[in-house]
Prior knowledge:
This protein is mainly β. It is built from 5 helices and 91 strands. Strands 2, 5, 6, 9, 10 and 11 form a 6-stranded mixed beta sheet that branches. Strands 12, 14, 17, 18 and 19 form a 5-stranded mixed beta sheet that branches. Strands 21, 24, 27, 28 and 31 form a 5-stranded mixed beta sheet that branches. α3 runs parallel beside α5 (1149-1157). Residues 698-719 are annotated as: Disordered.
Amino acid sequence: xxxxxxxxxxxxxxxxxxxxxxxxxxxxxxxxxxxxxxxxxxxxxxxxxxxxxxxxxxxxxxxxxxxxxxxxxxxxxxxxxxxxxxxxxxxxxxxxxxxxxxxxxxxxxxxxxxxxxxxxxxxxxxxxxxxxxxxxxxxxxxxxxxxxxxxxxxxxxxxxxxxxxxxxxxxxxxxxxxxxxxxxxxxxxxxxxxxxxxxxxxxxxxxxxxxxxxxxxxxxxxxxxxxxxxxxxxxxxxxxxxxxxxxxxxxxxxxxxxxxxxxxxxxxxxxxxxxxxxxxxxxxxxxxxxxxxxxxxxxxxxxxxxxxxxxxxxxxxxxxxxxxxxxxxxxxxxxxxxxxxxxxxxxxxxxxxxxxxxxxxxxxxxxxxxxxxxxxxxxxxxxxxxxxxxxxxxxxxxxxxxxxxxxxxxxxxxxxxxxxxxxxxxxxxxxxxxxxxxxxxxxxxxxxxxxxxxxxxxxxxxxxxxxxxxxxxxxxxxxxxxxxxxxxxxxxxxxxxxxxxxxxxxxxxxxxxxxxxxxxxxxxxxxxxxxxxxxxxxxxxxxxxxxxxxxxxxxxxxxxxxxxxxxxxxxxxxxxxxxxxxxxxxxxxxxxxxxxxxxxxxxxxxxxxxxxxxxxxxxxxxxxxxxxxxxxxxxxxxxxxxxxxxxxxxxxxxxxxxxxxxxxxxxxxxxxxxxxxxxxxxxxxxxxxxxxxxxxxxxxxxxxxxxxxxxxxxxxxxxxxxxxxxxxxxxxxxxxxxxxxxxxxxxxxxxxxxxxxxxxxxxxxxxxxxxxxxxxxxxxxxxxxxxxxxxxxxxxxxxxxxxxxxxxxxxxxxxxxxxxxxxxxxxxxxxxxxxxxxxxxxxxxxxxxxxxxxxxxxxxxxxxxxxxxxxxxxxxxxxxxxxxxxxxxxxxxxxxxxxxxxxxxxxxxxxxxxxxxxxxxxxxxxxxxxxxxxxxxxxxxxxxxxxxxxxxxxxxxxxxxxxxxxxxxxxxxxxxxxxxxxxxxxxxxxxxxxxxxxxxxxxxxxxxxxxxxxxxxxxxxxxxxxxxxxxxxxxxxxxxxxxxxxxxxxxxxxxxxxxxxxxxxxxxxxxxxxxxxxxxxxxxxxxxxxxxxxxxxxxxxxxxxxxxxxxxxxxxxxxxxxxxxxxxxxxxxxxxxxxxxxxxxxxxxxxxxxxxxx
Length: 1158
């Protein structure tokens, strides 16, 4: 037991050893308390916080117990249910709806039988920022107040005070209008750091009623607004006014800051004209870290230092004078350790112990000493004395051991250190863990430790296999506390014993050494060549001891600098296993690469050279020399670096300053193994030359140009090429050619000779000299072949003899019109036109094609668009013409055309297009009439494409959640002039969609949709509604019977039937599926819709496209043809026959009785 108590002193100095050792030692010896973590203050409690967790954790053996103090007194919880303090764990958990009762300064004490450690003060602050404390959860708000308008004369200053509420930092202030437009700030108008808005002088346009101050608290996601303020500026001619300061007041301000805080000095002036602000530091140069903001009104300096102390002056000046303000800036500092906190000590009994607490700060910190948490002022016999920052224990005894606290404080804060002091004599304590394992690699050195703690110091020796360690390969260090093996071998593996002894006793530990295989690179990277822009790969294969797998890594360096490897997509370097990949390489990647195979014990390296192949450098030292004439020269050069890729060719370029100065053109190419080129030059030019090289990677940059080289004039070397013969007029022929470029003319006086003759008709050429590259031959026969030659000449001679070219003279317009025009109507908008082609001789040129033109007879002034007045290229006899308008009458003509123009038109042919479906209704609106009634109003479609017969109205009850259709109904509305309809009997508080289509005899057009929501039904009126419904149903039943009788009688007498026309069925599948027995819907603006059997639908839902009546001539006629009402043929009859039905409109009881009486 005595030895265990002595061993506890080792933990006093655990900071001097490894964490692993401290943990090991903690479990076998006693240890005084050491604070290892605690919650640093201050702790800010917000209004929505109901729980505080204050941490305090200490290390010690026996485990320490904890207690807390608040404001220097033992902390007694006001309510046991609101606090949980675990004496074994130390953490303090405070719970309350009102955390303000826990405000104060707390300390945590951790104690065991060896002493007491304590924390620094932990301050808890409950943040209050509510206008009224009656609300438990309140937010910052501006006080309610009535603000009178601020009335000033133009030129006077204005201060709009914000007075923002306190709240959780950070707090941001904004000045805006009620519509959230920022108030413009400038040198005249600006916001101060206090949140107020300052006007150095007022202008007339400053008058407004909605100046608003907004305070934003981002941490609690809150923005509050002050009541809007009004400013009225009376217009006057403002006099000049000497500046004064709106902020700050007075002439001098003292500014005290802590070192490291940010300094802000502010001067906001007023005056007219607007003053400017300047700053100086009196007697010193302003720090370069100073920044000026807010139009020079705010001086900012971040992280102030002692050198930033001094007197600063701001000056506000305008044409009328100036004003100044002085700032005394004082930089202070909280306490801090001069070097490091005082260290724990172990010493023998009877020695003197000095504990020094060296601190600095401004103001100078006061030092307070404690022992085991209690105040310590020395003892009466003066064996333990306190000298301000030092405690001395004379002739120390074992009972003087304990935890001493040094606390230094000034008005800016405090620091505290716990110092463990132990006075004892003890046998050697080997701090190194017994059976500590060491690893080394063959050929490397290894050091084994035997750290001994004892009082007095111990004698230390090492043995292996019971033999003392000897030899040049072993070296004892630090009085034997370390044993170093210089060059480890496999045979050095084994157990080593460290023995330590002093007058108090002895101790020993064992160290285990394992010598491992060395790490090696067995497949080093190879020298590699790669093209610029491509992927480079370097491989590095390694071997290492299998037991070091977890610590192995492969590192790549270029020129001894580690290559940055990143997982980002834009990184050019990546490692895949043992391979380094470099993407998009360039010349900067060329160099020596080193791969290093590394484990926790050793490493090995290998290098390789990466060669990058790139485009060649520009040639240098160009030289030009003549051969037999100035137009035949030799250009030579010295090639530049090929950048590791052989040059395949050189390109010679030239520039001349007569015709195209500054423009370089390719002249010649030579192979890459020669550095000369023989050049053939044009005459009468002033040349300069340059060369660039090309290799497998690409072309390199060009060389510097040569000196100018002038060539003499000469006759042209060639004649024009690409001769073209065209005839723009009937008796003309235009001859054009690709002219020689100016550099090819070789001299002055350049011109062309044009020679032509009619092929097979003339023997001699007609000749003309021209300067242009075009020549016009007049009075030629129409469209006949000619033979042409073009020659070049200048003042020095003619070019070589050219080869002849054949072409045709000009064309004329055709003379004949197509005959036998036939028109076949395919559908409402498309027809087929055929004709007999014109004789080829009448074309009088190259046949261009035929043109078909249509003109509406219903609107003679309107001719179809060009897309319908169509041209068809080539020789043809029929075409398809789309894009006609339904239900129209047209006149059609056809003519032939060539390049010259159009021939005469054919005799016109007149035809009619069938009736089509209308366009979409242009306007559809809805309004709620009653709880179950909706009134619809609409406008007719822009184009009816036929005779408008009425409308098809479909309405659908919509599921408002799934947005699908629950129920659908439809109504046929007769009468083309109807423009409104009332639908009754709808379900209350429901969403309906209404689809309205306009209809002709050909069918109904696309729907126009409208949605409407009915009102919720009134429960009190349900009885009257039911009564109305019963009456309505009776009336409908009676009218239905009357309609059935009327239909029967009228069918027997015969009725008016619509003619079927060959049209495609309407796309409305619901309409197409309707039964033939469906009754027609009838309504007008005054009566309810009626449904009766055998009435005809206006939808045109029968398969034949009959939009007026299903009672067609097809029901009574045989054969496969269909006729319109005047009996004319309009197309083949198709579709199934349907039972006939009639259309009834305007049915009233009186008309029914009259019908029955017939």
